[in-house]
Specification:
This protein is about 40% helix and about 15% strand. It has about 550 residues and is an alpha/beta fold. The strands form 4 sheets. Strands 5, 6, 10, 11, 12, 13 and 14 form a 7-stranded mixed sheet that branches. A 5-stranded parallel sheet has the order 2-3-1-4-7, with helices on both faces. Strands 15-16-17 form a 3-stranded antiparallel sheet, with helices on one face. Strand 2, helix 3 and strand 3 form a beta-alpha-beta unit. The chain starts with a helix and ends with a helix.
């Protein structure tokens, strides 16, 4: 409403006076865009309203830099990406709401939160500076001076105080042998000891460090060489050990980039959602991205080399990206990230040196030239899901489809044992983010979903989810299995209880211990060649993951 009432009349035909509006986030961009587009007070034919944020496709983003036709006023509605990251020369007027959304990490629940707050005074000055780059400009601040003086920080809070510290702590322990007290002692704005303790607990849970001695384990040593989140790094190593590295590298690359190749233009939201839903694979956001990447790669390998290098330089690629609402530049970034990660895991010995990345699509071609063993399970969906479970667990919820077709989610907790779950549960209801393809499911094969991120905005949303089976959790997720003989149940990490006969539960726990022993030996020595017994055990794992085998 404030933006609408502050609006400026369109520029005379001879002047290209563009307007830049700063709002907190993507939802506010959509709201402002819709309100301005449908306003009875504005002549829609004299304005061009353009959204601008990190998720906007490159071709749409480029429109912000193009001068409008005579008599048209360009109005750019943006997040803080327009503060410093880009400069639009014809901006004359700036409307600043003074608000921003910042990522925070809530320690008590290990939840990422997108918090709306006042921008810093430094950011307000940056926004003001966007007006009048090439001619005198005006900035309208939609907040009083008292807010600027009393409520706004001089500068944005340092990221080390807002983000999880797992990777930093692992690097400090692996490279500098530091303990909890010495890690951040010399920096100007040190994080709290609680933040450090949470990071160390996460590293201990995935067996990256020995928390008692502050030393890295063999797994932690390998993870310290990978510039990704430790859970993503663990998935990559498991992908190599279980011979489905190529698809796991694709998924890991998307996760480490922090953005999906899918995009949703404001004026084509329903079409984009439908196109994504048509590509849905195996009740999984990650496998849906893998599917569209594979289709794109197959197309690109039929095109000339020049078309492979330059985004949308060939009509076939442009048509593909329009049809599926995917970003060609992001797809190329996935390829480059895969190549980089492959070089790193070669260096630490998990992939033979015979695998090369000597051409733009070299990563995806050279797997064909290596012993087929290295991609023997690349089409095994259950195996890929299990590896996702190994990295994302204990980020898990119980899911149930209601009679009306909607999904209800519940953070797992068991009342059968007096144990503290390793993932802090929240009493607040959780929901799938609307961008998830799993929201389209009217039935689920398995009653559990692992998720990449739990983000608090207006609601507590789960982002990037995959359905997983109980056996995937028991073999690849749970760290501690407690057998309750008299009840005929096994409890995973004090969170989830499964009905199993006492005999089956004991056998399963012993089998899991043998599997962990083999994996620990392989992680300690990546060059280790598995003996026949170990190979047989892996074959049993693959059989257990096969639903048909489970039915038998």
């Amino acid at each position: 409403g404030h933006i609408h009432s502050t609006f400026i009349a369109p520029a005379p035909e001879k002047e290209a006076n563009a307007i830049l509006i700063f709002v907190p986030g993507v939802e506010e961009i959509k709201q402002a865009h819709d309100q301005l587009n449908t306003s009875s007070l504005l002549d829609r034919n004299k304005f061009s309203f353009l959204p601008l944020h990190s998720g906007v496709d490159n071709s749409e983003q480029a429109k912000a830099f193009v001068a409008p036709k005579p008599g048209i006023t360009k109005v750019i509605i943006s997040t803080n990406i327009a503060e410093t990251s880009i400069t639009i020369d014809d901006i004359v007027f700036v409307i600043d709401t003074g608000r921003v959304k910042e990522n925070r990490f809530i320690l008590s629940t290990r939840t990422a939160a997108l918090i709306e707050t006042w921008a810093s005074q430094a950011s307000v000055k940056q926004r003001k500076g966007r007006a009048g780059r090439v001619r005198p400009g005006v900035c309208f601040h939609l907040f009083p001076r008292s807010v600027y003086n009393e409520d706004m920080r001089p500068f944005t809070q340092p990221e080390i105080l807002r983000a999880p510290l797992t990777e930093i702590c692992l690097q400090l322990i692996a490279g500098w042998n530091m303990d909890q007290n010495s890690m951040f002692a010399d920096i100007i704005d040190p994080p709290s000891q609680k933040a450090v303790s949470v990071a160390l607990s996460i590293l201990h849970e995935i067996k990256a460090i020995d928390k008692a001695t502050y030393t890295v384990t063999p797994l932690g040593r390998h993870l310290s060489f990978l510039p990704v989140d430790v859970r993503i790094g663990k998935m990559i190593l498991f992908g190599a050990m279980f011979h489905c590295l190529d698809p796991v590298l694709t998924v890991a690359s998307v996760m480490s980039l922090g953005k999906s190749p899918f995009f949703s233009p404001i004026h084509l939201r329903d079409e984009a959602k439908q196109a994504k839903a048509q590509l849905m694979q195996h009740e999984s956001d990650q496998l849906t991205v893998l599917r569209v990447f594979t289709l794109w790669k197959e197309l690109m390998q039929t095109l000339p080399t020049r078309s492979q290098i330059h985004p949308n330089s060939h009509p076939a690629e442009s048509s593909f990206c329009r049809k599926h609402f995917v970003n060609a530049t992001t797809l190329r970034q996935i390829v480059h990230t895969k190549q980089h990660l492959l070089r790193l895991i070669k260096r630490i010995g998990f992939v033979p040196s015979t695998v090369e990345c000597d051409s733009w699509f070299g990563l995806d071609r050279t797997f064909d030239a290596v012993d087929s063993l290295w991609e023997a399970n690349s089409s095994n969906i259950a195996m890929i899901k299990s590896i996702l479970c190994s990295g994302l667990y204990p980020n898990i919820v119980e899911a149930k489809v209601q009679p009306n077709g909607t999904l209800s989610l519940r953070m797992p907790s068991s009342s059968l044992v007096n144990a503290t779950p390793i993932a802090a549960a929240s009493d607040q209801a959780v929901h799938l983010h609307p961008s998830s393809v799993v929201t389209e499911c009217r039935a689920l094969s398995f009653p559990f979903l692992v998720y990449q991120t739990r983000m608090m905005t207006k609601r507590l949303y789960l982002h990037e989810v995959t359905s997983v089976s109980p056996i995937m959790i028991l073999l690849f997720g749970a760290g501690n299995l407690q057998v309750l003989h008299t009840l005929g149940k096994v409890v995973a990490d004090g969170m989830i209880d499964f009905e199993l006969s006492a005999k089956t539960a004991v056998l399963l726990k012993a089998f899991r211990q043998q599997l962990d022993s083999i994996l620990d030996a392989k992680i300690s020595d990546p060059s280790l060649v598995l003996d026949e017994n170990a190979k047989k055990l892996i074959e049993i794992v693959l059989a257990l993951l096969d639903p048909q085998s489970l039915n038998k």
